[in-house]
């Protein structure tokens, strides 16, 4: 395991890929690995990219990577598919439109599905981000499709969240209703070569006008990821947001808050896992099932009983 870790720290791509597989499969060695890797993390800047299916997230990310590389920074892209329980990456990998950087040693691309990890996809994503951070990637981009709660959880890992909209019918308004307004730091109106892009921009600006002003107003940038138009400007806006977070002290407070949150999540997960394991091993579940069915006891009392038994020392 130490060997694997030192290889990752030295920039060995296969070791990094192996480590992410360990995370995805929630292998036994995972927790210890994550503990050991922690001191080497905390340096990368994390960008989340979300938006409706087919909005152009991957093609835009591809162009953004070009811009980032021209600035001499290294990049990791983690494409997360919360809709796919099966792939563990394979199918999504085909969907990633980022071939133009596949030969660049300073670009690492990985996709993740929902396989395995009981801790959930956002925890697994967070762990994969840590691996890429220790792997000394300057910028880590997380791409995930905006379909439900999961992308909100995943986007909480990001320092800057980019929401990709398109001139599709009523798209902007719907996305905003779904609460994406709260997580967006930068908007891209992609496919601006299509009819209606100006209207989407105006709609979003109007929504932003109605929001209570904070220290940061999300800029709305029109892009065409097919040609790269607007991408330079988009990158500038992301850097502006980064500078804002840094100068206001928000980057530090955001990072601290998340670390606390992370302990809570790990605790929840470990407690759930270990207590349930113990209950299963005790062999009492069949009896419990029957008495629940017969209404001799109820699920609330049963759960409380278990808590009392395993955590007496808390009271
Ligand atoms: N006209 C036009 N088409 C675009 C543009 N950007 C992307 N597309 C097309 O939109 C389709 C989806 O692009 P992707 O980059 O795969 O979109 P995505 O959001 O990553 O898709 P999922 O990951 O499947 O949700 C592709 O056929 C692209 O060629 C653009 O700026 N203009
Ligand atoms: Mg995609």
Describe the secondary structure blueprint for this structure:
Blueprint: H1 2-9, H2 13-24, H3 30-37, E1 45-51, H4 57-70, E2 75-80, H5 90-95, E3 107-112, H6 121-134, E4 139-145, H7 149-155, E5 160-165, H8 171-177, E6 186-189, H9 197-210, E7 220-222, H10 231-247, H11 250-282, H12 285-293, H13 299-310
Parallel strand pairs: 1-4, 1-5, 2-3, 2-4, 5-6, 6-7
Helix pairs in contact: 1-2, 2-6, 4-10, 6-7, 8-9
Magnesium ion (MG) is lined by residues 57-58, 95, 143.
Which key phrases capture this entry?
single chain; alpha/beta; Rossmann fold; 2 domains; binds guanosine-5'-triphosphate; binds magnesium ion
Short overview:
The protein has helices at residues 2-9, 13-24, 30-37, 57-70, 90-95, 121-134, 149-155, 171-177, 197-210, 231-247, 250-282, 285-293, 299-310; strands at 45-51, 75-80, 107-112, 139-145, 160-165, 186-189, 220-222. The protein is of the alpha/beta class.
Explained architecture:
The chain has 315 residues and is an alpha/beta fold. It has two domains: 209 residues, 3-Layer(aba) Sandwich (Rossmann fold), CATH 3.40.50; 54 residues, no CATH class. Helices cover 51% and strands 12% of the residues. It contains 13 helices and seven strands. A seven-stranded parallel sheet has the order 3-2-4-1-5-6-7, sandwiched between helices. Helix 8 links the parallel strand 5 and strand 6. The protein starts with a helix and ends in a 5-residue tail after the last helix. About 3% of the residues have low confidence. The site of guanosine-5'-triphosphate (GTP) has 18 residues, from helix 4.
